[in-house]
Amino acid sequence: MPGFEELHVTAAAAAALHALGWTTEDAAAREAAPTAARGHNLVVVAPPAPAYAAPALAGLLGRLGGDGGVQGLLLAPAAELDEWGAIANALGRDLPARVQVAHGESRALRRLRARELDLLITTPEIALALVRRSALKMEAMGVVCLAWPESLGADEALTPLMHDLPKEAQRIIFTAAADRLADLVERYARKAMTVGAAPAESTPLPPAGPVRTVAVPWQRRAAALSEVVELLDPASLVVWAADLSHEAAIAAAVPLGDAAVTLTTDDAPKASLIIAFDPPSPERLRQLLGAGDVVLLVPPTADAYVTRIATPRRPIRLSGLLEAVTHEAGAHRAAIARAIEENRPERALLTLAPLFERYDPSAVAAALYDLWVAKSGAGVPGAVPDVPATSKMLVGVGMMYKSKAKDLVAILTKELRLDKAKIGRIELKDSFLLVDVPAQDAERIAAGLNGAMIRRKRVTARVDRGAARPAGRGAPARGGPRGAPRARD
Predict the structure, then answer these.
(1) In this structure, are strands 426-428 and 273-276 parallel, antiparallel, or unpaired?
(2) Which of 8, 4, 189, 174 shows the shortest CA–CA distance to 87?
(3) What would the pLDDT profile of 427-483 be if each residue is shown by its tens digit?
(4) What is the C-alpha to C-alpha distance for residues 415 and 410, in angstroms, rounded to an integer?
(5) How far apart are the first and last CA of the chain?
(6) How far apart are CA 487 and CA 489, in angstroms?
(7) How many Cβ atoms from other residues are within 10 Å of residue 348's Cβ?
(8) Which site among 90, 222, 245, 431 is 20 to 30 Å from 440 CA-CA?
(9) CA 296/CA 316 separation, integer angstroms
(10) pTM over 0.70
């Protein structure tokens, strides 16, 4: 493939990069692709968009494959999983690697046990659940990629996953905030080659602007692109993207055949409006601002990054559910505006990101507003029930199996790494037991316990979501199988 001869990647991987618009003039392609292909540790510093990972991913995919089961694991925020899958599939059409994006455990569990995967793309929490079920074996892993670990917010899941990774396994880290990850890189990817970082002696660029921004899920960027063009009606338009992986979707949203519309992955020519389909680098943002008025499409996981590089920001409100319902609650709007302006809600954005992928963000905001005013008694009927600090969990092993409370405590503390102080009351019954655990960790703990061995019995566990059991009842629900908790409808 012209321009890729010096890269130590497979011909198929080079062809895939070329098709997406990458050349060896890009440092990421020139350095990241061969480093990943050779199996060396790598840190790629880039804006938080999977498109920037394409060169390293191409080098990695070129050496995966075969009948040895899963060789690679890519851990990413839940809101980005499908976007990572799109990039991996665009690169892997002519490569032997078998890739799956896992939003849950079931299908990945089956394919892992059947040795039908070479690269699994999922969240740290799902990966840990698969490890607990003995389907994902970290000790046999050849490479692990961490996508924007500064946004994963999953240290409790990440630490046990990386703990069992072989020393010789390759580690690739994609980050938009290298200055915040020095300890993590030292711990997990020592002596890694770093690509894309500014020279140490250089002064960080200050935020640039003004820009207009559109908050939009990753999968709705093409639709948002069309709505922005319809709303602003520019005389000339440039759509800038990090690569050409979404060229077909962009072409369907805007008339690329029109002489007044240009799609580019390079310097943007002068135009009335520049729309950045992917988050740009600070240097690229300045070039775009020099070419015309700029609109940035901002997915949830890129919001904190865009805040660092762009100011002032003026949000564009697209048509949607919010336009259909108007409210006169000015005081509430003012309170929300203050919360946004005075304290960037990054943790909340990461929590809500999966909902933004399934529903219109306006619908999510409206639902949260209803919950808020109902909780505060501000005129909306109904009330939000308090979320308990602990949840009761049912575990299918009891006194008839000669089990003791200390057996459960040992598994929770040693295998699931739960602080002993967080384990609440344990009620030991004949064929099952009840234990109080932190509500925010209950689902993770139940998933980890499923399949565990207590007194030579493989147990099941679930979070009890039904009404509280009367004190003194020592048997499972009527009609339930003896020795295992019965699920409620």
Answers:
(1) unpaired
(2) 174
(3) 888 878 888 888 777 878 888 888 788 877 888 888 876 543 333 333 334 333 334
(4) 8
(5) 58
(6) 7
(7) 13
(8) 431
(9) 10
(10) no
